[in-house]
Write a structure and sequence with these properties.
The complex is a heterotrimer of chains A (76), B (117) and C (95). Chain A is 32% helix and 20% strand. By secondary structure, chain A is of the alpha/beta class. Chain A has one domain: DsrEFH-like (Hypothetical Protein Ychn, Chain: A, 3-Layer(aba) Sandwich). Chain B has 117 residues and is of the alpha/beta class. The longest helix of chain B has 14 residues. Chain C has 95 residues and is α/β, with parallel strands linked by helices. Chain C has one domain: DsrEFH-like (Hypothetical Protein Ychn, Chain: A, 3-Layer(aba) Sandwich), CATH 3.40.1260. In chain C, 34% of the residues lie in helices and 19% in strands. Chain C is built from 4 helices and 5 strands. The longest helix of chain C is centred in the first third of the chain and has 12 residues. The relative contact order of chain C is 0.27. Classes of the chains: A alpha/beta (76), B alpha/beta (117), C alpha/beta (95). The interface between B and C is medium-sized, with 21 and 16 residues.
Chain lengths: 76, 117, 95
C-alpha cells in the first residue's frame, strides 16, 4: 500500500550525515512507489542552493535534483 | 615552523569534524609544518580499522588517516578513550600511538598552535 | 512503534532515544553514530529488550563488524528501513 513519507531536514548539507540519510531514505521510498515530501527548514534550505561543488560527500544539489525528477516534493 | 596540534573529539561520518581534522592535518603537513593529530573521546574511532565506504560516496577517512601518517603526521589516541569505545591497540590503524592523558597534555603543551574539531 | 536513533551512545540524545523505546516497548533502528550502540552490551545496559535493527551502510562506514553484535541485532539496508517505517503504526525520531 502506498504511504506518504514526510522528511524534515534542518541541517546544512555538509556538516552532518543527515543529508545522506535523507537522500537514501527518500530514494528508497520513491523506488517503492511511496509519495515523499521533504520539508527543508533552518539551515536545511542550504541543501537546495545551486552550483554546489562538494566531492567526497553526498552532493546535496545533485542528489536532491535527481530525486525531484523521480517525484520528490520539496518545500522550503 | 612551530608544531600544530589538531585535536579530534568526534567520531567519523556522523558529522564533518573528523574529515575536517584530517583535511587540515594534510594541509599543514604538506606545508612542511610539524603536525600532531590527537584523538580523544569518540575521536579515537577515526583510527578504527576496516572502514568501508562502498556505495556511499563518502571519502574513506581511514584511508585519509593513513595518508596523513605516510606524509609524516604523528597520530596519537588517548588510552582511556580507546577503551571506552571498545577498541584495543590492534583495532587501530598501524603507527597510531596509544598514550595516556598526561602524555597528551605534554603534547598539547609543546605545540605552538591548537585546532579543535 | 519504531524509534530511530542516529546519535552516539555517549550523547544524551542517543541514550534518550533508547530509553524512550524501552519505555514504550518499541523497536529501534540504529543509523549514523547510533550504530555504535551495538558494541559492549550498551542496549542491555539501558534495559532495552526489543528488536534492534542496524543500517548496513552506517555499520560498514564505521568499521563495525557483524561479530560486534549478537543475533538480537538485525542488519538491514535502506529498503528495510523504509519497509519498517511503512509497517509501523508510529515512527518516532530521529534521536
Amino acid at each position: 500500500m502506498e504511504k506518504t513519507f514526510t522528511l524534515f531536514l534542518s541541517t546544512s548539507p555538509y556538516s552532518y550525515e543527515n543529508t545522506y540519510t535523507a537522500v537514501k531514505i527518500a530514494e528508497s521510498a520513491l523506488n517503492k512507489g511511496h509519495a515523499v515530501n521533504l520539508i527543508a527548514s533552518g539551515d536545511g534550505v542550504y541543501c537546495f542552493l545551486k552550483k554546489q561543488k562538494a566531492k567526497g560527500i553526498t552532493n546535496a544539489e545533485e542528489k536532491f535534483s535527481e530525486l525531484i525528477q523521480k517525484g520528490l516534493k520539496v518545500y522550503l | 615552523m612551530g608544531k600544530i596540534a589538531i585535536i579530534l573529539r568526534k567520531s567519523p561520518y556522523g558529522d564533518i569534524n573528523a574529515a575536517e581534522a584530517v583535511r587540515h592535518a594534510l594541509g599543514a603537513v604538506s606545508d612542511d609544518m610539524s603536525v600532531l593529530l590527537i584523538l580523544v573521546d569518540s575521536g579515537v574511532l577515526l583510527s578504527k580499522k576496516g572502514q568501508d565506504d562502498t556505495g556511499t560516496g563518502f571519502t574513506n577517512l581511514e584511508g585519509i588517516l593513513k595518508d596523513c601518517i605516510d606524509m609524516g603526521v604523528d597520530v596519537y589516541a588517548e588510552k582511556l578513550s580507546v577503551g571506552e569505545h571498545h577498541m584495543e591497540a590492534a583495532d587501530s590503524v598501524e603507527s597510531v600511538k596509544i598514550v595516556d592523558g598526561s602524555e597528551i597534555a605534554e603534547l598539547i603543551k609543546e605545540a605552538k598552535t591548537t585546532m579543535i574539531f | 512503534m519504531l524509534v530511530i536513533v542516529k546519535s552516539a551512545p555517549d550523547t544524551t540524545d542517543g541514550e534518550r532515544g533508547i530509553k524512550f523505546a524501552r519505555d514504550m516497548a518499541a523497536d529501534i533502528v540504529l543509523l549514523q553514530n547510533g550504530a555504535y550502540f551495538v558494541q559492549g552490551g550498551k542496549l542491555e545496559d539501558l534495559g532495552f529488550v526489543g528488536t534492534a535493527y542496524i543500517l548496513d551502510d552506517d555499520r560498514k562506514l564505521r568499521g563495525l563488524k557483524e561479530s560486534d553484535f549478537g543475533d538480537r541485532v538485525k542488519e538491514i539496508n535502506y529498503d528495510g528501513v523504509v519497509d519498517l517505517m511503512t509497517e509501523s503504526d508510529k515512527v518516532v525520531g530521529m534521536f
